[in-house]
Write a structure and sequence with these properties.
The protein is built from eleven helices and no strands. With 294 residues, it is mostly helical. The protein has a single domain, classed as Ammonium transporter AmtB like domains (Ammonium transporter fold, Orthogonal Bundle). α3 runs parallel beside α5.
C-alpha cells in the first residue's frame, strides 16, 4: 500500500484536471437523453420506442465494445493507420495529467455521440437489429480507426492536422455515416407524393424536441470546454472560459434567426423546429474552431 501511495504521489496526475474531465464526461453523457428526446419529439409517435431503445443501445454497446477493442485501436501504438489491439486494457496509454481510466471514459462518451448522430439521420426507416449492427461497427471499427488518425498519433496528426473538440473526429464521422445510410435507405414512406412534391411529416411532441435541444446545449458545455483536458492554472482556466463563452454564443446566435422572427406567432411549430435545428448546427460547428492544418 505504501508503494502505491508513493507512486501516486510522484505521478503527474492533477486532481483538479481529473475532476474537470470527469465532470465534462458526465455532461457529454447527458447529451444522450438530449438526442433521444430530439429524435423522438421530431418524429411520429409510433417510432418512439424504437428511437429511445436505439439511444440506450448506443451507449451500452459502445461502452463495452470501445473498452474491449476500440480504445486500443484508437490510442494504441502500431502504425499511422490503426492502433494496437489491447483487449479490456487501458494501461498501455499510461497516466498523463489525468489517469488512464479518465481518458477512457472521456473517449467512450465521444464514441457514443458519434454513433447517436447516425440514429437521427436514419430515424423511422431502420430496423432495430440492423441499427445495433451499425452501432457495433462504429464503436469497434470506424470511430477508433479514424480517431487514431488524429487523436492517436496517426497519419493526419503527423501532417499537422488538429481537431480540438471533435468537429471532424466525432461529428463529421457520425454525419458522413448518417448521410450514407440515408442515401441507401431513401426518404421516409410518404415523404414525397407521386409527382415528387415534398410533404411535411410533423413530429408528435414539440416539448420533447425543445427539451432535447436544451439538454444538448447543456451537454456541449462538457463537450467543448472539456476538450481542453485540463483546468489547473491560469492558462487552462482562461481557455475553458473562452471555449464555454464561444459555445454559448454559437447556440444563442444560431437560434435567433432574425430574418424570420416575425413569424413566431403565426407559425410557431415551424419556427421552433427551425431554431432547434440551428442550435444544433452551430454547436457542432463551434467545437471545431481549432480544427485546421498548420
Amino acid at each position: 500500500m505504501e508503494d502505491i501511495i508513493t507512486t501516486v504521489s510522484e505521478s503527474s496526475i492533477s486532481g483538479l484536471d481529473t475532476v474537470w474531465v470527469l465532470i465534462a464526461a458526465m455532461l457529454v453523457f447527458f447529451m444522450q437523453p438530449g438526442f433521444a428526446l430530439v429524435e423522438a419529439g421530431f418524429t411520429r409517435s409510433k417510432n418512439t420506442a424504437n428511437i429511445l431503445m436505439k439511444n440506450f443501445v448506443d451507449f451500452m454497446v459502445g461502452s463495452f465494445l470501445f473498452w474491449m477493442i476500440g480504445f486500443g485501436l484508437m490510442h494504441g501504438a502500431n502504425n499511422g493507420f490503426i492502433g494496437g489491439l489491447h483487449l479490456f486494457d487501458w494501461s498501455f496509454i499510461g497516466d498523463s495529467n489525468v489517469p488512464a481510466e479518465c481518458t477512457l471514459i472521456f473517449q467512450t462518451v465521444f464514441c457514443a455521440t458519434a454513433a447517436t448522430i447516425v440514429s437521427g439521420g436514419m430515424a423511422e426507416r431502420t430496423k432495430f437489429s440492423m441499427y445495433v449492427l451499425i452501432s457495433i461497427i462504429i464503436s469497434v471499427v470506424i470511430y477508433p480507426i479514424e480517431g487514431h488518425w488524429t487523436w492517436g498519433g496517426g497519419w493526419l496528426s503527423e501532417l499537422g492536422f488538429h481537431d480540438f473538440a471533435g468537429s471532424t473526429v466525432v461529428h463529421s464521422c457520425g454525419g458522413v455515416i448518417a448521410l450514407a445510410g440515408a442515401m441507401v435507405l431513401g426518404p421516409r414512406i410518404g415523404k414525397y407524393s407521386k409527382t415528387g412534391e415534398s410533404r411535411a411529416i410533423p413530429g408528435h411532441n414539440l416539448t420533447f424536441g425543445a427539451l432535447g435541444v436544451f439538454l444538448l446545449w447543456f451537454g456541449w458545455f462538457g463537450f467543448n470546454p472539456g476538450s481542453q483536458l485540463a483546468a489547473e492554472g491560469a492558462e487552462n482556466a482562461i481557455a475553458i472560459s473562452h471555449v464555454m463563452c464561444t459555445t454559448n454564443m454559437a447556440a444563442a446566435t444560431g437560434g435567433l434567426d432574425p430574418g424570420r422572427s416575425g413569424r413566431y406567432h403565426s407559425r410557431l411549430r415551424p419556427c421552433i423546429n427551425r431554431r432547434c435545428s440551428n442550435h444544433r448546427r452551430c454547436l457542432r460547428c463551434c467545437n471545431g474552431w481549432f480544427s485546421c492544418p498548420d
